[in-house]
Amino acid sequence: MAAVTLVTLTALATLAEPVVAFGAPYHHPYPAGNSNCSSSDLAQLALGKVLSDAAPVFGIYADVESSTSTWMREYADDTLIVHMNLPGTHDADTWNYSLATQQSLDHVTGLANITEFDPAAYRCQDLSMVSMLDDGIRVFDLRYAFDVTNTTLVFWHGPGLVSETATVDDVLFGFYRWLDDHPSEALFLSFQYEGSTTPYGSNDAGVQLQLFNALTSPAARQYFLQTTGSIGTLGEARGKITLLKRFGNDMLPAYYTTALPGIHFSPTNWTDNSPNITLVYNSSTGATAYIEDYYQPLTPANSTAEENIQWKLNATEAHLRMAATTHPNDLFWSFASSTNLVNNPPVTPAIQALGNGSLTPNGGVNQRLVPFLEGMKGKRLGIVMLDFYEQPAGLLPLFLSLLPPNGSSGGGGY
Ligand SMILES: *[C@@H]1O[C@H](CO)[C@@H](O)[C@H](O)[C@H]1NC(C)=O
Ligand SMILES: *[C@@H]1O[C@H](CO)[C@@H](O)[C@H](O)[C@H]1NC(C)=O
Ligand SMILES: *[C@@H]1O[C@H](CO)[C@@H](O)[C@H](O)[C@H]1NC(C)=O
Ligand SMILES: *[C@@H]1O[C@H](CO)[C@@H](O)[C@H](O)[C@H]1NC(C)=O
Ligand SMILES: *[C@@H]1O[C@H](CO)[C@@H](O)[C@H](O)[C@H]1NC(C)=O
Ligand SMILES: *[C@@H]1O[C@H](CO)[C@@H](O)[C@H](O)[C@H]1NC(C)=O
Ligand SMILES: *[C@@H]1O[C@H](CO)[C@@H](O)[C@H](O)[C@H]1NC(C)=O
Ligand SMILES: *[C@@H]1O[C@H](CO)[C@@H](O)[C@H](O)[C@H]1NC(C)=O
Ligand SMILES: *[C@@H]1O[C@H](CO)[C@@H](O)[C@H](O)[C@H]1NC(C)=O
Ligand SMILES: *[C@@H]1O[C@H](CO)[C@@H](O)[C@H](O)[C@H]1NC(C)=O
Ligand SMILES: *[C@@H]1O[C@H](CO)[C@@H](O)[C@H](O)[C@H]1NC(C)=O
To answer: Please, which domain of life does this record's source organism belong to (predicted)?
Structure first.
């Protein structure tokens, strides 16, 4: 396996043409019967197969050049990551989760006796992860667990199985491929174990070992930034993935914790449903992250969508004001995403982000963030995670415009 992966990546680095819509039928370049298939051709076929397996979660790969697909090119190499505004997507892998997807996987989820539920409760995005990348999203919240047979690591949101075929490893190859096409960009992947999948799902040693293997494969060693417990400059992070570890390896020997690069956001110190978490991610240096993850507003029972949106907006804006005015050299990570499914009527992620029609004339959190962000020109806000990030259309471009690159000393050369 390792040898095949290395051949694939070596060939990959030499790929010249910006072609490959890998979901499309493959047109073989040689006439039938010609057996001189070069190794680079086989590598392309192998990568095409992996990306096709990944497509239900990553999206159908296509190389798109746009100003937003390379927005980091304009920023100087010595820009500190903690000084940047980085847009992210919460539960990024749920973008195609619909009733049709749910039903297409009934034969799988049925094996674990998972009962039916409203797919809208678990869907947080509408556009594929490759579209997110091209639109400028750089931080991805990814939720993994074993499939129903405890065999492969796949993506879930609660009991919502996103795909049976797209494994964590397959999807990583989508990110690797995209970085080859966009070497000026720095990506940040947050991995978190998803609980409440199958009735027996558990973050056991098997899960932890398989995640470790995916994150330390020969390909991962090449594409993940190999530093631990510190966040540096954009120049160091370009063309790489910075791993955001929202998981522990407590079922494995200590080696598995120390051998994994990235930033550790200990789940025990990530206070549940908190508007204001202070999390030390490196106890030797005291490096600290300030986090808002108030995902379920603690409104009185049976509150309206309007009230739930207002409470969430309040927490998000308070944290963003804190990011703009305090701790200039620390990491800020704020979630604008939320839900209140225990409310009656239930408030879905879409209602929180986008409102509920005439019941919420001012829209949802996303619409209401626009006037707030217009007052934040020139401010560092840090990482901001969105649901349904493309709505309203001006939201993401506005966020990306708040902090223009310093002077004219762009990275260039990419
Ligand atoms: C393989 O076949 C093609 C088309 O006939 C030819 O152009 C190419 O040189 C051959 N490659 C090798 C390595 O023999
Ligand atoms: C999205 O879901 C629909 C319905 O299940 C499915 O037909 C389609 O192939 C999915 N898209 C991708 C890229 O997998
Ligand atoms: C702007 O320049 C300052 C001083 O060199 C640097 O600390 C900061 O990281 C830069 N910020 C951006 C967003 O480029
Ligand atoms: C699913 O339900 C059936 C019938 O109640 C039961 O026999 C089976 O053991 C259950 N399977 C699991 C994985 O819980
Ligand atoms: C999966 O693993 C869990 C323990 O981690 C076990 O309880 C469960 O029975 C296993 N399920 C299957 C289908 O193997
Ligand atoms: C803490 O940061 C220092 C300096 O960057 C680094 O050498 C060390 O490995 C980090 N410790 C942990 C536990 O990440
Ligand atoms: C949680 O935070 C406390 C206090 O900062 C620290 O002592 C402890 O090591 C942290 N736990 C983990 C698992 O990082
Ligand atoms: C919430 O709504 C349910 C269903 O309409 C009702 O039974 C319950 O009494 C309500 N709770 C409160 C605190 O109003
Ligand atoms: C609004 O945010 C402030 C500051 O975080 C908090 O003290 C207050 O309780 C919040 N109000 C509501 C209704 O959420
Ligand atoms: C978050 O907590 C810190 C420390 O307790 C406090 O100084 C700060 O005002 C709080 N921020 C918000 C937005 O509540
Ligand atoms: C959203 O609107 C629909 C249709 O008007 C309504 O049935 C539902 O209760 C609303 N949900 C919330 C949380 O306001």
So the answer is: Eukaryota
